[in-house]
Amino acid sequence: MSKANLAMSAWNRMSAYPGGKWLFSRLVCRKAPYFRSIRPRFRALRPGYCEVHIRKRHAVLNHIKTVHGIAMCNMAELAGGTMTDVTIPSSHRWIPKGMTVEYLKKAETDLRAVAELNPIPQFDEAVELPVTVNVMDTSGQTVFRAVIAMWVSRRK
């Protein structure tokens, strides 16, 4: 079973139970510890879609008491990478090549990052896949946007 299938299978099994989404989030952070600092919570995951939440708390704030830009970059990479992971065929792999970000307004509340890929392309050959991730505050306003260039290619 491929890594992507493992992630999707784990989500499908765990998210149906009380505390399952929390446990899935913890397991992802155990595999990729640099995401622990933002304490993400996965809320939805399916091919072409991933939603991750973080709470506004002291550890992710900057000097003006808003959510720090790098915390939002971490959210975007986590949501975009996980969405890509469960979307591509098991015969393929991915790696981020770069990320362009826009800071649109102050991030003064808890945040929600949504990575969405619609339509899902065919993955016949190696491709640079742009994945857009929007980070929104609790009122639904987009405060940050990232476009992550994902290099998707066949496994060797």
Please render the helix and strand layout as text:
Layout: H1 3-14, H2 20-31, E1 41-46, E2 49-54, H3 69-87, E3 92-103, E4 111-116, E5 127-136, E6 142-154
Antiparallel strand pairs: 1-2, 2-4, 3-6, 4-5, 5-6
Helix pairs in contact: 1-2, 1-3
Which key features would you list for this structure?
156 residues; alpha+beta; Thiol Ester Dehydrase, Chain A; six-stranded antiparallel sheet; 6 strands; 28% helix; 34% strand
What would you say this structure looks like, in words?
The protein has about 160 residues and is an alpha+beta fold. The protein has one domain (about 5-155): Roll (Thiol Ester Dehydrase, Chain A), CATH 3.10.129.10. The chain is built from three helices and six strands; from the N terminus they run ααββαββββ. The chain has helices at about 5-15, 20-30, 70-85, and strands at about 40-45, 50-55, 90-105, 110-115, 125-135, 140-155. It has a six-stranded antiparallel beta sheet. A hairpin with a 5-residue loop joins strand 5 (about 125-135) and strand 6 (about 140-155). Helix 1 (about 5-15) runs antiparallel to helix 2 and helix 1 (about 5-15) packs across helix 3 (about 70-85).
- Number of domain units: 1
Report the uncertain regions.
none
CATH architectural name: Roll
Largest sheet: 6 strands, antiparallel
CATH class: Alpha Beta
End-to-end separation in angstroms reads 16 Å
User: What's the helix-strand series?
Assistant: HHEEHEEEE
Share of β-strand residues: 25-35%
What is the averaged pLDDT score?
A: 93
Can you list the strand order of the major beta sheet?
1-2-4-5-6-3
Helix content: 25-40%
Tertiary shape: globular
In CATH, what is the homologous superfamily?
Answer: Hotdog Thioesterase
